[in-house]
User: Which sequence fits this backbone?
């Protein structure tokens, strides 16, 4: 399921960049890109996202797979938008007329989606989840929420394992899902068991936390350094966004 | 030993889970200030329950719990117990809940009020003592079963407890790691109570061996233990032992 970033080429990301800078950059970049309307500025943003992907040396395979999935969905837009937006007719297919406005909109959405996906894959996906959580905290997200996020992440994997174990146990005894009452009942039992185990586990984890002196306050070990590289990176992102803005609003 | 006051003393403890038969029926138990006690008893006899009672995670229906010489009855009494006595859980999965190993091990020291720097230093010492230096930044749930067990022990040791309760600490460890564990426990000059199904481990480590029978503690014959140790140390081939030695 979620655990580790599938996209990052291990720890071999080019240099270390403060997770806060990565998150903030992702936020600013995606917010700005959502605003751009002109093809030039959108194309520039996409170009910058490609640059990020190259800079962080994303593994091409997983990136392409994700882009493929997103563009599959976008293909639907290309089928629908041009024929549903009114405007200057570019192409007449029997009773259907493809409008210039519709085509442009589909193009814009496609470019923006790809740009955002690439940028997020480069900036956010490679962050270990814990670092991302702590970075969110430093960026002002409430501590309780971050702890909830971290514990959820920690135990999602456990629940998944547990469910896998239950399913395997059932499969080993010859269970095969079908569309009959026996299947539904078995799945109900599996889910019920999963819930019971989750509650039981929660209680035992609470005990373990009490045993280690927990009294309601979480402390974090994470330290963030705004090193030169991080500051430089932040400046580069700011410059890129500014350049896009000039293209958008300038000439 | 009788002259010194025990670290942990249970008197006439009665306990049963709600809606079930009583498990402990008038149990007496004492852990002296300088001893290692082994507990070897069948599955489901109430060993884990006994440890949970000592830590105040369950409340007895009758009897008295004294820790560090003071009676412990309500939650507030047990806060001190939990800070000064370390419990290593039977299932390490329950004990590791932080994202990374170092955070998990530093969790206890931070709760004890140590600064971030001190907590990390204590965590590193504990990890090093178990040969786990390389695990600092690993993700907790991605460790192997044996690694999780060692990390959960490190997490308890990092709090520098004054006594240790270990619930099947050797479970799932290979023979080399087990030797390391024995060395570590032997090197700790604090009283320890060790639950285990491994009589070799207990005889190697413990001064006394107890068992649970019909909800009470019974001392196991020391003579038998002694002979067993010798028989074992002589043979390094695959062999079997019966629990009575
Ligand atoms: N939360 C619970 N609710 C109800 N019964 C429980 C609960 N936990 C344990 N028991 C029961 O209490 C008895 C003692 O359990 P305990 O975990 O103390 O055994 P144990 O001696 O540690 O066994 P093992 O060697 O298998 O770890 C068992 O019969 C068990 O089924
Ligand atoms: Mg047990």
Assistant:
């Amino acid at each position: 399921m979620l655990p580790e970033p599938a996209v990052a080429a291990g720890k071999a990301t080019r240099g270390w960049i403060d997770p806060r800078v990565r998150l903030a950059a992702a936020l600013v970049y995606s917010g700005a890109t959502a605003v751009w309307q002109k093809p030039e500025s959108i194309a520039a943003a996409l170009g910058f996202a490609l640059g990020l992907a190259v800079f962080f040396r994303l593994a091409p395979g997983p990136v392409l797979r994700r882009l493929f999935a997103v563009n599959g969905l976008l293909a639907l837009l290309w089928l629908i938008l041009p024929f549903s937006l009114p405007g200057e007719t570019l192409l007449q297919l029997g009773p259907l007329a493809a409008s210039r406005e519709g085509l442009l909109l589909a193009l814009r959405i496609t470019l923006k989606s790809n740009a955002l996906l690439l940028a997020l894959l480069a900036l956010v996906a490679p962050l270990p989840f814990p670092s991302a959580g702590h970075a969110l905290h430093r960026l002002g997200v409430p501590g309780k929420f971050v702890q909830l996020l971290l514990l959820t992440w920690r135990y999602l994997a456990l629940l998944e394992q547990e469910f896998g174990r239950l399913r395997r146990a059932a499969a080993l005894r010859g269970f095969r899902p079908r569309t009959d009452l026996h299947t539904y009942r078995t799945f109900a039992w599996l889910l019920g068991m999963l819930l019971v185990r989750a509650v039981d586990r929660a209680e035992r984890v609470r005990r373990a936390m009490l045993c280690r002196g927990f009294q309601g306050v979480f402390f974090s070990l994470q330290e963030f350094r705004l090193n030169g590289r991080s500051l430089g990176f932040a400046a580069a992102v700011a410059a890129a966004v500014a350049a896009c803005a000039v293209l958008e609003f300038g000439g | 030993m009788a002259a010194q006051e025990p670290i942990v003393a249970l008197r006439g403890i009665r306990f049963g889970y709600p809606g079930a038969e009583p498990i402990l029926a008038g149990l007496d138990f004492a852990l002296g200030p300088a001893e290692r006690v082994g507990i070897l008893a069948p599955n489901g006899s109430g060993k884990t329950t006994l440890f949970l009672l000592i830590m105040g995670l369950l409340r007895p229906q009758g009897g008295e719990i004294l820790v560090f010489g003071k009676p412990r009855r309500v939650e507030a009494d047990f806060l001190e117990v939990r800070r000064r006595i370390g419990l290593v859980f039977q299932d390490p999965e329950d004990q590791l809940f932080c994202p990374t190993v170092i955070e998990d091990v530093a969790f206890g020291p931070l709760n004890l009020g140590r600064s971030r720097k001190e907590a990390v230093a204590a965590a590193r010492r504990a990890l090093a003592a178990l040969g786990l230096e390389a695990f600092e930044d690993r993700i907790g749930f991605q460790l192997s079963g044996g690694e999780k067990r060692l990390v959960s022990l490190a997490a308890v040791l990092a709090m520098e407890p004054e006594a240790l309760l270990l619930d099947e600490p050797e479970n799932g460890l290979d023979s080399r790691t087990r030797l390391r564990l024995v060395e570590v426990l032997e090197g700790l000059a604090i009283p320890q109570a060790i639950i285990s199904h491994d009589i070799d481990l207990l005889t190697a480590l413990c001064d006394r061996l107890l068992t649970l029978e019909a909800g009470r503690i019974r001392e196991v014959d020391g003579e038998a233990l002694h002979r067993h140790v010798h028989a074992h140390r002589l043979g390094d081939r695959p062999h079997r032992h019966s629990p009575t030695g």
In short: Residues 181-211 of chain A form the longest helix (31 residues). Residues 1-13 of chain A have pLDDT under 50 and may be disordered.
